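Model it.
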Amino acid sequence: APENPEYMPLLGPADYEKVDAWRDSTASMTPEDRARMADASITPSKKSKMVAAGFLRDTKGFVAMANSKGMFVFHRATNADFTITVRSEDGRGSGWASRDFNDVSKLDTGKASAIAIKKATDSVDAKEMEPGRYTVILEPAASVTLLGNMARAMSQRAADEGRSFLSRKPKEGEELPEDAPKNRVGDKLFDERVNIWSDPFHPDVPTPAFAADGSPVGKTMWIENGVVKTLPNSRYWAKKTGVPYVPTAYSGDGIFGGGVQLIMAGGDASLEEMIANTRRGVLVTRTWYIRSLDPQTLLYTGLTRDGTFYVEDGEIKYPIKNFRFNESPIVMLNNIEELGVPQRINGSLIPPMKIRDFTFSSLSDAV
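Modeled.
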């Protein structure tokens, strides 16, 4: 094989701050603990004449890396996550809930299951609504994948090479000077209430304080007051373009690798208060089967699932059939009406969001 022109030499020793991601309560879980937590979901589902299926998983482990230059990093962590889908026996109603924590003592499977059971009960006999643009209340599980996809697309190299929604492109008939910026760092692209960052030391969503190459990682502001502040890059691309290296925290390798931890600032309102403040809108429990349509505009398509409801005059009026949506998180984060209290979901902290003019393109027969 030819020499790799982008090869970067090994890193040497560095100072790393310790991240507290280990909880003895999770590390010491027993089969009896798991059975009790599963029963807190299964028994009430049966009593409600519902069919429940889900996952309860607890893990404890560590990541360590070392090399011949003297670099050594170590991180240990625990995690407990729970996902429950509840269906009515005739399959006409469906509800869902998910929780994940480093500390299993914060995980109440019974409380989460009660939410899923109620949504399954309330979603029976869903009515059709015409596709179109609606005000939506997105629970954190409904927006976290869209935001994660946006984060994964925020690469400095992709932007500099013209392959990204963050590429600086000339207007029609215009030629950019040779020394013009190639990306849109410093541009205001979102509502000024949008603040998104990563922080390995956040007590609710800790991550390793090092990248996959062993570089130290600290708090990084990606979007501040709607302005793009930072783009992740590689050591090679940072050197090539003469900018600081911006690594992201190690999140695993291969198909088991996770996404970038995102922390998004929110407001003070609960989900119930956001519903009460809505004149007309659609409550979306979660989205799934999300696929990219256009990387230049970050347009995605996907489906609502497991509980979609029509809201009128501050109350949930009735369940509605699921929609297919065509939407970009860029547009979504420019149409914010209200942000709620951030909640942990998939290792990130995301607030519920009330968004105007969210585009539903067609109906879906899926429950």
